[in-house]
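The following record pairs a protein chain with its ligand, beta-D-galactopyranuronic acid.
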Amino acid sequence: MYNQTRHILLLIVLSMHLISCQTTPDSILVYTGSNGKQKKVRNASDWQKRSAQILDSMQLVMGPLPDVSGKVPPDQIISEDTIINGIRRIRFSYASEKNDRVPAFLLMPASISQPVPGILCLHQTTDYGKAEPAGLGGNPNLQYAYELAERGYVTLAPDYPNFGDYKFDPYSNGFVSATMKGIWNHMAAIDLLQSLPEVDPERIGCIGHSLGGHNTLFLAAFDKRVRAAVTSCGFTSFHKYYEGNLEGWAHKGYMPKIISVYNADPDKMPFDFSDILAVIAPRPVFINAPLKDSNFEVSGVHDCVNAALPVYKLFKAEDKIILKNPDAFHDFPTAEREEAYEFLDRELNMKNPVVPQKLIVNYDEAKVPSYTLPDPLVLNNGRKVTDKKEWPGRRDQIMKLFETEVYGISPEWKGRLSSQEISSDMNALDGKAIRKEIKITLQNEDKSHNMILLLYLPKSSSPAPVFLGLNFGGNHTVTSETSIGITPIWVRNDEKTGVNQNKATEAGRGTANGRWQVNELISRGYGLATMYYGDIDPDYDDNFKNGVHSLYEAKRASESWGTIAAWAWGLSRIMDYLETNPAIDSKKVVVMGHSRLGKAALWAGARDKRFSIIISNNSGCGGAALSMRAVGETVGMINRAFPHWFCDNFSKYNENEGKLPVDQHELIALVAPRPVYVASAEEDKWADPRGEYLSCLYASPVYELLGKQGLKAKDMPAVNQPVMGTIGYHIRSGVHDVTLYDWQQYLNFADLHLK
Ligand code: GTR
């Protein structure tokens, strides 16, 4: 079915008009004329020539697109046809060429009165294959075929070769790349979508994440029937892909010629993603490119978009290329997904989309649902607590609710803790501090678990008050001191901290030093105790087998502890150790955490009264923010994105926050009468700054009952105007982060209470 002659001719022609490989805004509008000379693209018809040349260049690497003689009529062999929650799900296969059938899911609303747009939904690299977008497993943020069907679309999710149920060797079947086989299959998928009576054949879109993200672009480049494309974490420029090493693009699942012909060298590549975007122009494209995507470097995405922009401008369609850069990892967060769906609604003229509540990210005070918070000073039997002697009883009730409904019940520690100093430097930080690494071993009957604590202690005070906080990237990221060990265990991939394939590397050393102002701490007489959070429990869903969970039997119940509870429990074990170290004033341990670790710090501080001050930095949903406001991240969103963080019971409150028997102001109240500090950031709307402030305000009556002053600010303080009493609060200008400014407030607060 290949037109070999055409391919050979194409090779010859192309070697004559190979245009510079790194496309720039200047070079995109240049094509090779019939005389072999470079010419400027001046109008749409010139552009057609340039566009055809780009498609030819792509085929040099991917192999030729089979010609139409290879087409087979659309057909379906259905193996299952069910309706679940109003969504019809058909498991079937379709023919993509004579001897090949592609397994797929078709999803649509159970009843469709008139033809609707059809969306091809391409999966990422996952063993689930098509089942992930279809909503049957995997990452809840990637179930776009299911979500779009809920919204009213007809969606088709096929397996990519050698994923899911689909075994196929493209190479022994005449293809030069799996990429081209994918394009061919996806074109056949569009044939099929267009043949369905439920689908308007003129309104076809395509969406995909990662593998599916680039496959979406490849398809849209070759198939103009794709009227709107959504690509999530799908590309970066070849030059910025793993510093220009293209081996990852050259394996059998993609384009082996990238290595065999182009030496995995971006300078030798005859096309780049900028060209692909340009070929798609002026059709609309929505790009999700998270800032912390370690696979596809974000500035390279910007380079590609900028280079393609002149073509969109040529067609007066510059508003049709949309780029979003959420503060996220290699993922498709809810807010950006919802924007992508709105984009499809708009571009494919989807009438009256059904927007499920779980996708509505609200930042508008006027749209906060009306809610009634549980009163921390009303007992379960409805009686008001008026005397501080009754508080311990009420406190127990609140504690139980948080345990069974939110974080899960942590085991009582009955094991044996031992510690061993594994390194020591009496002249750290230019002689100002003592630095030690301590191996802590937890032994529970026949099971044991090791974790490494990093300590910086000031020479100026002994025993020293310390701040204790878990870190995200490993102890070696906290300062640039070279002898701090690099954790050998799983770390989330992150380009900035040099984490590749979940292994921390030397490149990460010191990269988190802005978040850990150790010099500031030491100069003000405080020490720092920090540990890599994954040492307590790696931050992924492994069904609670690794980390400190491994110390206990694996049997799980709906109120068993989740990972946030494990981190909090680990903080208490660190406290057990700190109590044994005479250089530390264990009556003055401040527990502090940022973001998910702020949630953990609050829960640790609530449970363990040995922590003398508790600090939550930008902890948001499940931390300091009130859940019932449902502003920014909601209970449903957090449970779906991080199914391992909370106990299973917490999912009962997905899109049902009003039914929570407890809310986060009561978490703050559990800390009373000890000092607690909550910090928000103005641009961190996802964490709901106002909800964080209100928690402090509504915890105040408990502090007052116990003879302390509650939050002094009855209205939300202005940006960068800290308020400090027994409860402290500030909202800093800027984004979700921990900065020197934050630390300065925490140190002032600690001075106020500990000195
Ligand atoms: C986000 C999550 C937040 C917050 C944050 C973090 O993806 O939605 O709840 O915890 O991660 O920990 O950085």
